[in-house]
Amino acid sequence: MTEFAADRLLLFGATGDLSRRKLLPSLCALDADGLLPERLAIIGTARSDIDDGEFRNMAREALEQFLPAERRGSMAQFLNRLSYQPLDASSVEGFDALAAKVAEVGQSDEENGGLAIFLSTAPSLFGPTIAGLQHAGLTGEKVRMCLEKPLGTDLESSAEINDAVAGAFPEERIFRIDHYLGKETVQNLLALRFANILFEPIWNSNIIEHVQITVAETVGLEGRVTFYDDAGALRDMVQNHMLQLLALVAMEPPTSFDATAVRDEKVKVLRALRKAVASETVTGQYRAGAVNGQAVPGYDEELGKPSNTETFTAIKTHVDNWRWKGVPFYLRTGKRLPERVTEILVKFRCVPHSIFESMGAGLQPNHLLIGIQPEEDITLSLMAKVPGLDEDGVRLREVPLKIAMPSAFAETQRRIAYERLLLDLIKGDQTLFVRRDEVEAQWHWIDAIRAEWEANGVTPKTYTAGSWGPSAAIALTERDGVSWHE
Ligand code: BG6
């Protein structure tokens, strides 16, 4: 943890979608709960030529649209923290005026205060922005840099961005966002595994048969035409969010809950991922169909042209280490699937010998289902005897042992993932941010899949919007005798 709290937050891309939907609402909600440093000033910057007042108006509209009224608190107090400086980040000239603005709003004594910069801009502007910040003296020891995805499109381009940033900031002042790590249920994975004695002894290939991770979305392109068509599901969702989930499920117990210990363990998992072969991956692209009873167009229609970008992918992989020997990890994600659900299924092995078999009772292997969103439930399936006199033989049935997190913690505030991450950025805690070696291990594995697709001429199969992807995704698990959890 770097030892200063930021008293100025500089938001690049401040008029953009992420800022309006997530960043400003998260900051306002934190302010309403009295969690922002009292003197924190927030400076927005983007290309739009607007003044402080117009930026505050834009922010007010965003808050009214994206933050529930009961979380807004006194919006006036929050809006008062905001100021704005227009900037063309592609050339260094404007950065002097930006630095002047940052100095002007700084109310701190120079001793204690620092600056946190949040970069949520097109990747092509990363390099010029870093150069501009260096030119204007905004990269000093009390400055932290937070980077939002996409950080490149492959290992090489991500290394270029990381090199550019590393030229101005040491790793302990670089905060790479993966917003899934800000989700309470994702952090709860660590509590489940490492705050309970029950799971660790069985968390290995002796007892676990396979693991499934599903991130299903009902939305389509959402107007992000150019970005998404250049990315596709593999790079948009698997490279970051899904691999982070996998790493948390599979990692060894860290020695403490600190940034180095946790990230050291995650990166070992990411490096142990087996290179996927084309025949163990599936890609798909949605065609017109219906989601939640509503007719929706196909991807190519939304895009306005044919495309080979995958909007669905399913992958079978392994973590090649002692703990996970022979345990398949099945990943699947897609747009325009029947429901919005993110969940992890841990399927255990069957009991080695069933004393009930001779009495006609079948057994189901146990499983643990961890709901990340929208349901935040942890369900352990157990076999139980169906009550009765058993005259026709014993009958057993699977029953759930279920904890619904929202009701177990009914008294606590549910928060936007970015609230936690922005607060950690301001305080300087990197535990829930992704380290460079993790990102690079992720890209290394993803690039190999893309190379396999390229070498094997893999193009996405079509699936009807509102279905669970192409039938090949079902075949991927069925040939191992496994069904996707639905
Ligand atoms: C983003 C992706 O990182 O995550 C989007 O770019 C996706 O395509 C989003 O929709 C999903 O986030 P969440 O929090 O809604 O699951």
Topology, element by element:
Elements: E1 5-12, H1 17-32, E2 41-46, H2 52-66, H3 75-79, E3 82-86, H4 95-105, E4 113-119, H5 126-135, E5 143-147, H6 155-166, E6 174-176, H7 184-194, E7 208-216, H8 225-250, H9 259-271, E8 281-287, E9 289-291, E10 294-296, H10 299-303, E11 312-317, E12 329-334, E13 341-348, E14 367-373, E15 377-385, E16 396-404, H11 405-408, H12 417-427, H13 436-455, E17 461-464, H14 471-478
Parallel strand pairs: 1-2, 1-4, 2-3, 4-5, 5-6, 7-12, 8-17
Antiparallel strand pairs: 7-13, 8-11, 9-10, 11-12, 13-14, 14-15, 15-16
This protein binds 6-O-phosphono-beta-D-glucopyranose.
6-O-phosphono-beta-D-glucopyranose (BG6) binds at residues 217, 236.
Q: Can you describe this structure?
A:
- The chain has 486 residues and is of the alpha/beta class.
- Helices cover 34% and strands 22% of the residues.
- It has helices at residues 17-32, 52-66, 75-79, 95-105, 126-135, 155-166, 184-194, 225-250, 259-271, 299-303, 405-408, 417-427, 436-455, 471-478; strands spanning 5-12, 41-46, 82-86, 113-119, 143-147, 174-176, 208-216, 281-287, 289-291, 294-296, 312-317, 329-334, 341-348, 367-373, 377-385, 396-404, 461-464.
- The protein has a nine-stranded mixed sheet with strand order 16-15-14-13-7-12-11-8-17, with helices on both faces. A six-stranded parallel sheet has the order 3-2-1-4-5-6, sandwiched between helices. Strands 9-10 form a two-stranded antiparallel sheet.
- The model has no long low-confidence stretch (mean pLDDT 95).
- The structure holds 6-O-phosphono-beta-D-glucopyranose.
